[in-house]
Write a structure and sequence with these properties.
The protein is α/β, with parallel strands linked by helices. It is about 40% helix and about 20% strand. The protein has two domains: about 180 residues, Rossmann fold (3-Layer(aba) Sandwich), CATH 3.40.50; about 120 residues, 3-Layer(aba) Sandwich (Rossmann fold), CATH 3.40.50.460. Strand 1, helix 1 and strand 2 form a beta-alpha-beta unit.
């Protein structure tokens, strides 16, 4: 691999608070080492359509506190096809881009791995950016902490009205394939039950639990439901139990995309900055096809093949703890 002179950086997939801090980390670290930096707007779609913009140190001033991503993001069906990746490669070469940093989730890193398998002379390094925190090889992903705090703040407010009106609230949070947000937010706000995709057959157990709570004269119940739960989400679960608990006023609240927005937390800003710095350091050290992650409070490098192949699991001890603390 030849000497790197120009680095491209893009954000792909769902946006996450802290992505701007990572862009800033990549940009300023690269400039420190005397490299040029190109922002690739709209993710892989922009790579295919030449949406390139030069980034200077001042280009990333005052973006640490901004949610979303200044480079925009998109999902690209074209990049999934060999022809699209070939066009992206030709555009990168024409622009003189020697290496690329990809900030995104599982799908984004999968695209990076496929591209690297086909075009070895342009190294890619990934940064885990997704509110779901479901990427193998890192304890935390950019955006997770902010999303978690957003959920907890909302649930705390909902609990106030739930207790005032003897209501049973089913609150749906993001997590189509993983229950990390639901599990951690449920623990943080004292949810009476948490329903996640990783645990099966929860509806029957939920009815038993609610009956016990009713006997203990609980004035309210908060149930956190990950959107990917096998029972079909909060509305379906609420519908299945409401007739059995007529003494409760059953309500559903879907938090939706507010979980993606907002000013990134201090933790997300620091984590993203460290990972942006580490991504450039990895490229300078001739690394490719790796993700820089955060494990046991240390920066780690994980091969794309492991990131894509292996699944991050929830901690079963935490699931058991939820049941104990909710008595």
């Amino acid at each position: 691999m030849g000497k790197i002179k120009k680095i491209g950086v893009l954000t792909s997939g769902g946006d996450a608070p802290g992505m701007n801090a990572a862009i800033r980390g990549v940009t300023r670290t690269a400039i420190y080492y005397g490299l040029e930096v190109v922002g690739i707007r709209h993710g892989y779609h922009g790579m295919i359509n030449n949406h390139f913009v030069d980034l200077k140190a001042h280009s990333v001033s005052d973006i640490l506190a901004r949610g979303g991503t200044i480079l925009k993001t998109a999902r690209s069906k074209e990049f999934m096809e060999p022809e699209g990746r070939k066009q992206a490669y030709e555009n990168l070469k024409a622009a003189g881009i020697d290496a690329v940093v990809v900030i995104g989730g599982d799908g984004s890193l999968t695209g990076a791995r496929v591209f690297c398998d086909e075009y070895y002379d342009i190294p890619f390094v990934g940064i885990p950016g997704t509110i779901d925190n479901d990427i193998y090889g890192t304890d935390y992903t950019i955006g997770y902490d902010t999303a978690l705090n957003t959920v907890v703040e909302a649930v705390d407010k909902i609990r106030d009205t739930a207790g005032s009106h003897n209501r049973l609230f089913f609150i749906e949070v993001m997590g189509r394939d993983a229950g990390f947000i639901a599990l951690s937010s449920g623990i943080a706000c004292g949810a009476e039950a948490i329903m996640i995709p990783e645990v099966h057959g929860q509806v029957s157990n939920l009815k038993n639990y609610l009956e016990k709570g009713f006997k203990r004269k609980k004035s309210s119940n908060i149930i956190i439901v990950a959107e990917g739960d096998e029972s079909g989400g909060a509305f379906a679960i609420a519908e299945s139990v409401k007739d059995d608990f007529s003494d409760y006023d059953v309500r559903v609240s879907v938090l939706g995309h507010i979980q993606r927005g907002g000013t990134p937390s201090a933790r997300d800003r620091v984590t993203a900055s460290k990972l942006g710095f580490a991504a450039v350091e990895a490229l300078m050290d001739d690394q490719k096809s790796v993700m820089v992650g955060y494990h046991n409070n240390e920066i780690d490098q994980v091969p794309f093949r492991k990131v894509i192949k292996l699944k991050k699991a929830v901690n079963p001890e935490q699931i058991n703890m939820v049941e104990i603390l909710s008595i």
